[in-house]
């Protein structure tokens, strides 16, 4: 009787351990962010050119798609994705808004002079707190926005495939 | 006049310093419970990555604006999900995590009790 109970316990715990290992082996060990934000955050930020404070509500109020891009001149992947942003800025269905993340403004200006300025408005995030309002981890990160809602979120640089995906979505 | 200034300064300083100390304590307590999402196995408090630095600043700002720790945790889980907290809340995904130790303890207790009764 005693041995039977003992073996039952061992078998049950083995099955339990097996299930847990099996489940976690199938899961990717990379962290996939699950952001619940659907509505875009409300915040105030200074404009890159005029240095005036802008209310975020006033930026996204048109009946258009917006592409909100977090970038910095010191970030190399941003340099890679910049030609894609310039291409997207020629689409009149789409307005590009930039958020300059923890950057030196002189370097940022040089970056734009060199590679072109695709943004309608650029906001400044000197200390990185505005990017946190967006649930971002770093640069580059891009949000496709329609009617004050985040339609899609892209972590990392945009590439040719994502360019096609964005163009397909806004058609 | 100088003495008056010193007295005034020390009065102001000693009046506010416990307040500031409390805020720093609360900030440390909160940031120790936040996972630095871009680092490996570090809390926001321990990390000096760009992300962690911004997050520390944000927590400090929120405390100064009068947010409670509960409100700050809610704000951050809205943005980043439950994963950012080291101390997970009780919900359907975590109930096993919370109750398994208790169950094991009860089970062990039952075995011990049974043995005692036999003797």
Task: Walk me through what this model shows.
The complex is a heterodimer of chains A (171) and B (119). Chain A is an alpha/beta fold. Chain A has one domain (44-170): Glutaredoxin (3-Layer(aba) Sandwich), CATH 3.40.30. Chain A is 41% helix and 23% strand. Chain A has six helices and seven strands. Chain A has a seven-stranded mixed sheet. The mean pLDDT of chain A is 88. In chain B, helix 1 (2-32) packs across helix 2 (50-64). With 119 residues, chain B is mainly α. Chain B has helices at 2-32, 50-64, 69-80, 95-118. The A-B interface holds A 31, 33-37, 102, 127-129, 131-135, 137-138 and B 37-38, 50-51, 53-55, 57-58, 61, 77-81, 83.
Keywords, please?
heterodimer; A: 171 residues; alpha/beta; Glutaredoxin; seven-stranded mixed sheet; 7 strands; 41% helix; elongated; B: 119 residues; mainly alpha; Helicase, Ruva Protein, domain 3; 2 domains; 4 helices
The main pleated sheet of chain A reads as: 7 strands, mixed
Going by helix content, strand content and strand pairing, the class of chain A is: alpha/beta
Widest sheet of chain A: strand order? Answer: 2-1-5-4-3-6-7
| CATH T-level topology of the largest domain in chain B | Helicase, Ruva Protein, domain 3
Beta-strand content bin of chain B:
under 5%
Low-confidence stretches of chain A: none
Q: What string gives the helices and strands of chain A in order?
A: HEEHEHEHEHEEH
**CATH superfamily membership of chain A, which one?**
Glutaredoxin
How many DSSP-defined strands of chain B?
0
Number of domains of chain B: 2
How far apart are the termini of chain B?
85 Å
Average pLDDT number of chain A: 88
What is the CATH H-level superfamily of the largest domain in chain B?
Cytochrome C biogenesis protein
Which geometry of chain B do the CA atoms define? elongated
Rg of chain B computed from alpha carbons, rounded to a whole number of angstroms: 23 Å
CATH class of the largest domain in chain B: Mainly Alpha
In DSSP terms, counting alpha (H) and pi (I) runs of 4 or more, how many helices of chain A?
Answer: 6
SS summary, helix count of chain B: 4
Helix amount of chain B = 55-70%
- CATH fold name of chain A, please? Glutaredoxin
């Amino acid at each position: 009787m005693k041995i039977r109970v003992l073996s039952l316990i061992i078998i049950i715990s083995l099955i339990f351990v097996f299930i847990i290992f099996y489940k976690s082996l199938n899961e990717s060990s990379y962290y996939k962010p699950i952001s619940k934000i659907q509505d875009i955050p409300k915040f105030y930020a200074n404009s890159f050119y005029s240095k005036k404070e802008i209310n975020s509500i006033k930026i996204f109020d048109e009946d258009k798609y917006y592409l909100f891009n977090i970038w910095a001149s010191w970030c190399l992947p941003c340099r890679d994705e910049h030609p894609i942003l310039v291409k997207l800025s020629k689409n009149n269905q789409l307005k590009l808004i930039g958020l300059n993340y923890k950057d030196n403004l002189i370097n940022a200006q040089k970056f734009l002079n060199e590679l072109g300025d695709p943004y309608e408005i650029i906001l400044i995030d000197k200390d990185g707190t505005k990017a946190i309002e967006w649930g971002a981890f770093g640069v580059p990160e891009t949000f496709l926005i329609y009617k004050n809602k985040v339609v899609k979120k892209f972590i990392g640089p945009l590439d040719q495939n994502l360019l096609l995906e964005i163009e397909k979505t806004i058609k | 006049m100088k003495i008056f200034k010193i007295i005034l300064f020390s009065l102001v300083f000693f009046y506010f310093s416990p307040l500031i100390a409390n805020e720093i304590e609360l900030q440390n307590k909160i940031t120790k419970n936040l996972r630095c999402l871009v680092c490996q196995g570090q809390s926001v408090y321990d990390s000096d990555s760009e992300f962690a630095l911004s997050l520390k600043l944000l927590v400090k700002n929120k405390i100064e604006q009068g947010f409670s720790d509960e409100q700050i945790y809610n704000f951050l889980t809205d943005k980043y999900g439950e994963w950012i907290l080291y101390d997970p809340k009780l919900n359907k995904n975590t109930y096993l995590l919370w109750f398994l130790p208790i169950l094991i303890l009860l089970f062990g207790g039952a075995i011990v009790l049974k043995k005692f009764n036999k003797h």
